[in-house]
Amino acid sequence: MTATDLKRLEVWFITGSQHLYGEETLREVAKHSTAIAKSLNEQPNVTVKSVFQPVVNSTDEVYNLCLEANTARNCIGIITWMHTFSPAKMWINGLKILHKPLCHLHTQFNRDIPWDTIDMDFMNTNQSAHGDREFGFIMSRLRLDRKVVVGHWQDKNVVGQIAGWTRAAIGWYDWQGARFVRFGDNMRYVAVTDGDKVEAELKFGYSVNTHGIGDLVKMINDARDNAITKLCDEYAERYNLVTSLKKGNPQHQSLREAARIELGLRRFLKEGNYKGFTDTFEDLHGMVQLPGLPVQRLMNDGYGFGGEGDWKTAALVRVMKTMATGLPGGNSFMEDYTYHFEPGSEMVLGSHMLEICSSIADGKPSCEIHPLGIGGKADPVRLVFNVAGGHALNASIVDMGNRFRLLVNEVTAVKPKNKLPKLPVARVLWKPLPDMQTGCAAWILAGGAHHTCYSQNLSAELLQDFADIAGIECIHINKQTTLSQLKNELRWNEVYYK
Ligand code: MN
Known about the structure:
Layout: H1 3-6, E1 10-16, H2 23-42, E2 49-52, H3 59-71, E3 75-82, H4 89-97, E4 102-106, H5 120-125, H6 128-141, E5 147-150, H7 156-175, E6 179-183, H8 197-204, E7 207-211, H9 213-222, H10 225-238, E8 240-241, H11 252-271, E9 276-279, H12 293-300, E10 304-307, H13 311-323, E11 331-340, E12 347-350, E13 366-369, E14 381-384, E15 390-399, E16 404-414, E17 428-432, H14 436-445, E18 451-455, H15 460-470, E19 473-477, H16 483-496
Parallel strand pairs: 1-2, 1-3, 3-4, 4-5, 6-7, 6-9, 8-13, 9-10, 16-19
Antiparallel strand pairs: 11-12, 11-18, 12-17, 13-14, 15-16, 15-18, 16-17
Helix pairs in contact: 3-4, 7-13, 7-15, 9-11, 10-11, 11-12
Bound molecules: manganese (II) ion.
Manganese (II) ion is lined by residues 307-308, 335, 352, 451.
């Protein structure tokens, strides 16, 4: 999804009041709401349109607006605010049918109390402090998950929280009706990558279906020679090609083979309207190489991917990329690969056999060819690069049988000090928070997968918002995490989700 696509989407700004106050007050309420909706619309980090809706003052008006929001294709969520008191029984029928994400903005039009002029007129018009509590009660009484943002509407942090929630709503919108394709099934005998695809469609709105690898191979074989040549030129321009892959050199044919695979994959995904895919090296019949470079590039263009049939991670990678549209940094399929247990500097080396997205590359990737120990295919072409240091996170969705769990671990990425001359794959080094022992133990106790989406630009708060919209469990491992508290949280959640 591009930034332009996002500007087609809308969040509706809905203000509640009541007729009791009279026409003049309601006009002022509408004027203030218009100003807030307009201001949100002008914030560069709020990536969708913010649309003012007429102030609602009765059960019918609330119900009709919720009904409209449900069916409006471009409406990805609503932001509510009670400028005055708005008796909340009038919200029950509307909220009962609302299917769109909701953010409750607990704000007030004026930032400061006008000390010298404040009178009872002012008090009667500016009642968010108690009006929003009445609204909050009915939301809690209805057991509705929602985002609550508190503070003045022009405050940078308030706008930032709304912008984050809006991105979460964009992600949810992106998943509804999304299609993911698996080439071949799950890697044999692997547990965590498997799961209930029917329940996922019911809960998340996306579908996952399998195609035999032959359907893809046909499109790969159909790729035209001139298109392959053109794509190889693009590779030469965008990456540092090792000499053996360059035109006229012995392994250039392998580069052409990678280009052929990319063209076939792209066509398959485009024609099937898929937002992501999985493959497995146990099922590559008719393919010359395991796709490395093509997968790295497709991810860079916004497609989700999961290795070994991991459709949950493919869908997660896709949605995280969509939620991060326009932000600096990237999101990639990732795997906790191997450990560095040096006392005081413990860290994880994250990588995969090949498929790390070039959106997280630090500098221009090198395009190389090396043998692959497993799969029994020709040497695959891949991009090799390091990843910058800084704050990042890993996220994973696991199927707990009776529910899905989103697991987030904040990490500190570390720029590699060593050259790693013999490691022929893209790699990341990170230190899990709060520390290696606690972070890894917490992840394992929570059943987190070895596959994740590694993100440089999404916050844990945004992912929590996303989990709330999806109505799933979210376990957040961060600098405050202790194992005793985490174990309790897992136990209590067992009861909550029964
Ligand atoms: Mn894997």
